[in-house]
Specification:
Layout (H helix, E strand, L loop, with lengths): L18 H6 L15 E2 L4 E2 L2 E2 L18 E3 L2 E5 L9 E3 L12 H33 L3 H10 L1 H6 L11 H16 L9 H19 L5 H19 L29 H9 L5 H13 L3 H6 L5 E2 L4 E4 L8 E4 L2 H13 L19 H11 L21 H12 L4 H8 L4 H17 L12 H4 L7 H8 L1
Antiparallel strand pairs: 1-6, 2-3, 4-5, 5-6, 7-8, 8-9
Helix pairs in contact: 3-5, 5-6, 6-7, 8-9, 9-11, 9-13, 13-15
């Protein structure tokens, strides 16, 4: 059958179905069935209407990877060269066949349109398959890095609770210290429950050797939670496996209850007066006790967040992700005014206190500073298995204990601390009753407690500057 020619009307004339044509033609569809437009039908290759078994010459390839269109079984067909190195045949007409009415230009246009669509679809599918294949080979270390770096959140958004994680660096540290050395090179899909058991057992041995003491169950639980979350994300949105190897059977138990420390008012005053402790650290300690903020929130405070006129403090970074605005005690505000003068009038965007504590050394530094200030209460330094040595986080506990001793309600405390579980509140309430029994008054005047700041005038310039910055 020769290439279609135009009639006087401009329409392509379909070849007449001769007996020879019917014998050579391969049925494209079953009788009575109407294939969809663009359906792929297998058959012998035809070149200009001639059976390829009789003509071994290569077909003419049109632009966009299409072969020469041919009319067979009442429809126009064309082969398309796809990116996956296949050349299937597709029908050009829609559900309602208009092949007999198609002009040569319309046939050409349909060929190019169908070719572009099919080639795009196949190319996208090949790319998706390549990505899926690479991800199936993703190792635990690479996937963990995607999680802790925020790349996973950037890629998938808020799926399965993904968000910008405040403790991402801590999780990255745990994975690097205890997990990657054991299963980091394994693909995520290969990890088994036995692998997780081995990781947990090896981590305890490593921690015992490092800290020269048994690993606390709370620390083991934190590693367990980190692993559980990692493989939960590997299911969704990672789609790297369908189940988690971190089972409930591996969940560590709880540590025996311990005695946690907090400062007495006189001990805080002694610490703030000690000139052997850098003044930056003493200001940080005062802020921690009088605001109840966590360490990360304290370091994120800016001078623009201090409203001296209305006596409020704005904290934009918190563990819960919620910004906080609350009243500042007058005595702390007076200390901050002197601190502003001592710092030489910092800009509104400057940090309220610089980072003066080395990561993972905060507790040791605080206990050393207490000893330097001659605060020698034994329970603050530990010394027994059921006594927790004083930590930086216990300055926050000091705030809650003092607030309960002062008769503050849960709402007032939660505005500053973010949240307080019933169990923690009961622990602080017991400590507050002890302060009441001792008749200790909480939140003493600290306006002049730091000698280096006591003689400085309160600078009133930042009052308006801070307000404008907000």
């Amino acid at each position: 059958m020769a290439k279609a020619t135009k009639k006087a009307s401009g329409r392509a004339k379909p070849p007449a179905p001769t007996a020879t044509h019917e014998q050579r033609a391969e049925p494209a569809v079953e009788a009575g069935a109407l294939p969809e437009a663009g359906d792929h039908v297998m058959g012998r290759k035809r070149v200009g209407g001639i059976d390829d078994r009789r003509n071994e010459t290569e077909p003419k390839i049109r632009p966009k990877g299409t072969g020469t269109p041919e009319f067979r079984n009442g429809h126009w067909w064309v082969r398309i060269s796809l990116p996956d190195n296949t050349r299937p045949r597709y029908r050009l007409c829609l559900e309602v066949c208009t092949c007999a009415e198609m002009s040569e230009a319309m046939v050409e246009e349909r060929c190019e349109s169908l070719s572009t669509r099919k080639r795009t679809e196949v190319k996208a599918q090949i790319a998706a398959d390549d990505v899926a294949q690479r991800e199936r080979r993703l190792t635990v270390e690479k996937f963990g890095a995607q999680w802790t770096s925020g790349e996973l959140y950037t890629k998938h958004g808020e799926v399965n609770g993904l968000r910008t994680k405040a403790s991402a660096k801590t999780d990255g540290y745990r994975l690097a210290a205890y997990v990657y050395s054991e299963i980091g090179s394994k693909t995520v899909a290969e990890v088994t429950e036995q692998d997780i058991e081995r990781v947990m057992a090896k981590a305890e041995q490593t921690a015992r050797k490092k800290f020269k003491r048994p690993w606390r169950k709370s620390s083991r639980f934190q590693l367990y939670q980190c692993l559980r979350r990692l493989f939960d994300l590997a299911i969704r949105p990672g789609r790297l496996r369908t189940d988690s190897p971190v089972s409930e059977y591996l969940r560590p138990g709880r540590d025996a209850p311990k005695l946690f420390g907090y400062l007495y008012p006189s001990e805080l005053l002694a610490l703030l007066k000690c000139k052997d402790v850098p003044v930056e650290r003493r200001v940080l300690y005062a802020l921690a006790v009088y605001t109840g903020l966590r360490k990360g929130s304290l370091y994120a405070l800016r001078w623009s967040g201090v409203d001296f006129k209305h006596r409020t403090l704005t904290s934009l970074q918190s563990k819960t992700g919620l910004p906080q605005l609350f009243e500042v005690p007058k005595t702390l505000l007076a200390l901050l005014k002197s601190w502003h003068t001592y710092r030489g009038g910092p800009k509104p965007e400057d940090a309220l206190v610089p980072k003066v504590l080395e990561r993972h050394r905060e507790a040791h530094v605080l206990r050393d500073d207490l000893l330097a200030a001659k605060v020698t209460r034994t329970s603050l330094q530990g010394g027994a298995d059921n006594v927790e040595p004083m930590r930086f986080h216990d300055l926050r506990a000091t705030f809650v204990t003092w607030a309960l001793r002062e008769g503050r309600g849960d709402g007032w405390i939660n505005d500053r601390t973010g949240h307080l579980t019933p169990e923690m509140r009961e622990r602080y309430a017991r400590a507050a009753r002890t302060l009441s029994d001792l008749d200790y008054k909480p939140f003493p005047d600290i306006a002049k407690a730091i000698p280096e700041l006591a003689k400085l005038p309160a600078n009133v310039v930042p009052l308006n500057r801070s307000r404008r910055a907000q």
